[in-house]
Amino acid sequence: MHELSTHAANHAPPQSFLRKYVFSVDHKVIGKQYYGLGLLAVLIGMVLSWLMRIHLVWPNFAIPGLQWLSSAGAPGGVITPEYYLQLMTMHGTLMVFFVLTNVPFAGFGNYFLPIQIGAEDMAFPRFNMMSFWVTFVGFCVLVAAFFVGDGPPLSGWTAYAPLSAIPGSGPGQATGQTLWAISIATFCIGQLLGSLNFITTTLDLRTKGMTLMRMPLCTWAWFITSCIGLLAFAVLLPACILLILDRVAGTSFFVPSNLVVSDQLVNLSGGSPLLWQHLFWFFGHPEVYIAILPAAGIVSHILVNSYRRPLLSHKAIIYCMMAIGFLSYMVWGHHMFLSGMNPFSALVFSFPTLVITIPATILVLIWIGSLYGANLQINSASLFALGFISMFVSGGVSGFFLAQPSIDVYLHGTYFVVGHFHMVMGVAAIFGMFAGTYFWAPKMFGRMMNETWGKIHFWGTFVGTYCIFMPFHYLGMIGNVRRYSAFVDDYLQVPQPVSLLGLHFSVSPIEVHEFISIAALFTGAVQLIFVYNLIYSRFKGTPAPENPWQGTSLEWATSSPPPWDNFGGRLPVVYHDPYQYGIEGASGDFVMQNSSEHIQTVREDKKVI
Amino acid sequence: MNTDNWIRTSGITIALIALMALAVLKEHTVQAAPSESSVTGTVKLEGTPPHQRPIDMSKEPSCAAVHKANPVATETVVAGADGGLKNVVVYISDGLSGPAATEVAPETPSWDQKGCQYIPHVMALNPNEHFKVTNSDPTSHNIHPMPQPGGPNHEWNKSQPSGAPPIDAAWQSPEVAIHVKCNIHPWMSGYMVVVKGPYGVSDDKGSFKLDNVPPGNYTLTAWQESLGTQTQKVTVAVGKPTSVSFTFKAK
Amino acid sequence: MGKLLAVTLIVIAIGSAIPILAHIWVPPADISTHGYQIDEQMSDTMVEAGICFLAAQIILGVFIWVFSGRKPGAKLRTFPGGAKGLVGAAFILVGLEVIILGAFGKKAWATIYFTPPGADALPVQVQAGQFAFYFRYPGADGKFGPLHPDKINEANQNIFGLDVDHDPDSKDDIVTAEMGVPANKEIHLLMHAKDVGHSFYVRELRIQQDFVPGLDLSLHFTATKVGRYEIVCTQLCGLGHYNMKAYLNVMSEPDYEAWIKQQASMQ
């Protein structure tokens, strides 16, 4: 097993510019490429969300220049109902696929997994390069949808059939929807290649002394996520292919007979819209755990470092992440409680959905419990990691409501759902990404990021995202329906009376939406501080030492940034569990994994070198 | 250059510009050839007109309020008390040739959405004649004309929020007729009839008029959206007013 | 800065709970016979979720306050009970919640979906199509005539595709744009979609159900309070989704009879 570690990643250092920075097989470059792609996608996705929020509360506002992007979708810069939905679809697609799967998993995972297990590179470096460029092609195809005929599709990132299967069902549903399906199918291929790499590397390329239980928690998260991804993307890929066939080849996997769209009888028959939903959500639910688990792993990794003591149980975190991964395959029907599938299956899906709360709760309890008696260090990375815990709790408890079919009867399709998934994915997972960036930028770029700006970024984002997404839950409670491009329903115009501490006033739902939109624009502006910090520090930041955070895992046992083969030709040997902080009798307040110092450890893994 | 030269040069330039302007203006003046005349007539419905269902617009309260006092009904067959049939397009289906076939009306026709109805319900146009679509309602509408699939006219589907600027469009090829609907308000329905040459649309008395018809022998066709077409042969002579009548039988 | 984070966390947690505790924004009054079960379930869940939410955020805040900014070399302590206690607590507390909510929540769901409608429920058919709901009542013969999708003609207001000339059962069918129902009478709602997926949602009635093209689905409910309520579409169906709605008029029995007669005369 250990001999492989010198052979598998055997490649000469690259010489040409193209080989070094563009078509590189070096996992570190590929990780940065994924990160860069994710950064571009998140900026586009964020701008799309601004356009959506502006249109919802100021519908007649003309966005200067938008008519150049789409003269039909935004005549004179004013967004039409269909263009709102098209922007919404692209927002969701970009964010879920190209940001949440790319950055915490493919981005940081590619960069740090081999280093943290003490390997020179991934098991299949060329596959790795292909996986990035395939993902990049998928991104380009998706963005191309903005520039074709009718524009991008309007069926949401969930692309339910038959809306997504019948080209005449709306503007953007012709070429735009086909491009979407091709883009996502391509993305699946990229992720499958990536997952294969992660799994093989983790199992085969660990250095001497690096048992599975000695891997850091983020490595475990990446490993479990890639197992989930292998099965999940393997289902989405055929689903997209079937959708493309329905659209161009006259098949009707998803289109039943006797449909009349725009006065014309659709000549496809025999298909089932529920089939698309099953296929999509069988992928879609594990996908959201693909989005959150790496962030949870990264946050665990950073929290331990900032607590300066091990977590109460390393094994519990690992087993909980495994349990979440396993259970994630049993709950997809909770997206379909009201879809017309057999009502008995709703109860069957509800049970594991509620049960998944148990490992999630254990994670939170261990994070918080380990803080007791710790020596908490505050820096930008730890602020975001702590913020993650708060956001994960907030998003998780709203899931408790939606997991019950009878409550879902009222809350399905409302802003309550939007608040729930944004809290867990749109905020918590992003906090994981920010924490990872502040923590690992010194290692990746050899320069420290500016701590003051990092803290300002945290405060603006933490308060801002609560202001945006917490009110969504209240709007959902009064039944505010989601995916509406305008709020024309009577009950949304009516102010709700408020009596609080002797004050009496009234607030209409539209006014709450205005508050949310302003908070969204403010929070978005704050993100520009982060982008500026990232770019400025890349070139002008203070040079970073090898181990700026006094970390114990192997990424801190090499230079910042690491040499092309990660460890300068001599792979480390591992003697300790990953989080030996604050050990009594140790020479310092931390002991690195590859340190030959003998210590009395509070240890679960008995294997010692 | 000295002053004399300046004056001379300016004078020539101004004269040249004036001449060019005159030529351009002359080109754009629509001048009816002195021998063109009009064809008038009436369209009548024989028999009881089919029942037109009242339209319930309750899903769009702002439009429902507009029609509260005078509820509207479907406009598939609109016949007056004396049998005059409205919204029939009369055009020359045979016998046209030369420049008259491509004449364009002086004013841009307008297709308005008001009270969640299309005003006019039926509009006749020449190929490449521009028209503008306006939204006079407080709600968004969606204009979805559906020409023959696979034909030379392309289907389009655009939303027009309240107060948005007019949409300018034209049809490149003759087609009888293009159904227009609003996806948001399913009861909205209208027709655009694209024909070459002079055309007339009958009013609520059933009267129509085709202007600028050069002398000659023609076949006139009258089209009604659900009752089909009727044809008549007619001869237009100089100075003599021509009158034609059509009768549709109720189904 | 740790202290500031602790305070902010606690303020945000309490601030988030205030609108719920003060009942500022609550679902509208329930007008159905089954809705009270859903409301009770929601209340119970809110209490449990609220306790978990507040406890987690406040304890996190307190711990951040106490354990940040400590003197270097401060003594590390372990949470009493360690991991075992916490894991055990999670299993027991959450496990209990899961069982209670799962077991008792079944009742509300069962009332809606597992009990069939009564024999004398009033059948009303609803067709969802881009972008409106239309309703059909069976008329005096109590029977619905067959549907012919190829005969659908919205310009002529033949929404359902009825062939009145050839199908005797269709002759007395009443097609309306608003859904009128008598109060306190069970309604059997027969649902189908004309083109793409839609959904039927009336907040006050505490019912929601997707329309799936190709499937004939149904719901049954009894409305208890006279009034005018909105039926809105909650399944993304295209550009007009935001404006896809109809009104549900719950009326007294005599008002309903008068209304259905007036609608019949407009066919």
Question: Can you offer a commentary on this structure?
Answer:
Chain A is built from 18 helices and 6 strands. The model of chain A is unreliable at 1-9 and 604-609 (pLDDT under 50). With 609 residues, chain A is mostly helical. Chain A has 3 domains: 1-7 and 23-256 and 267-271, Cytochrome C Oxidase, Chain A, CATH 1.20.210; 323-541, Cytochrome c oxidase-like, subunit I domain (Cytochrome C Oxidase, Chain A, Up-down Bundle), CATH 1.20.210.10; 544-609, no CATH class. Chain B is mainly beta and 251 residues long. Chain B has a single domain (34-249), classed as Cupredoxins -  blue copper proteins (Immunoglobulin-like, Sandwich), CATH 2.60.40.420. Chain B is globular, with a radius of gyration of 23 Å. In chain B, 36% of the residues are buried. With 267 residues, chain C is α+β, with helices and mostly antiparallel strands. Chain C has 2 domains: 2-67 and 81-113, no CATH class; 122-265, Immunoglobulin-like. Chain C has 4 helices and 10 strands. Chain C starts with a helix and ends with a helix. The model of chain C has no long low-confidence stretch (mean pLDDT 92). At the A-C interface, helix 5, strand 1, helix 11, helix 12 and helix 13 of A face helix 1, helix 2, helix 3 and strand 7 of C.
Salient structural properties:
heterotrimer, B: 251 residues, mainly beta, Immunoglobulin-like, 2 helices, C: 267 residues, alpha+beta, 2 domains, five-stranded mixed sheet, three-stranded mixed sheet, 4 helices, 10 strands, elongated
Gyration radius over CA of chain A: 24 Å
> Which two chains have the most extensive interface, and how many residues on each?
A-C, 111 and 105 residues
Oligomer: heterotrimer
> How many alpha or pi helices of chain C?
4
Strand tally of chain A: 6
The biggest beta sheet of chain A is recorded as: 2 strands, antiparallel
**Total E-strand runs of chain C:** 10
Mean pLDDT score of chain A = 91
Q: In which range does the helix fraction of chain C lie?
A: 25-40%
- CATH level-1 class of the largest domain in chain C: Mainly Beta
Question: Gist?
Answer:
The complex is a heterotrimer of chains A (609), B (251) and C (267). With 609 residues, chain A is an all-alpha fold.
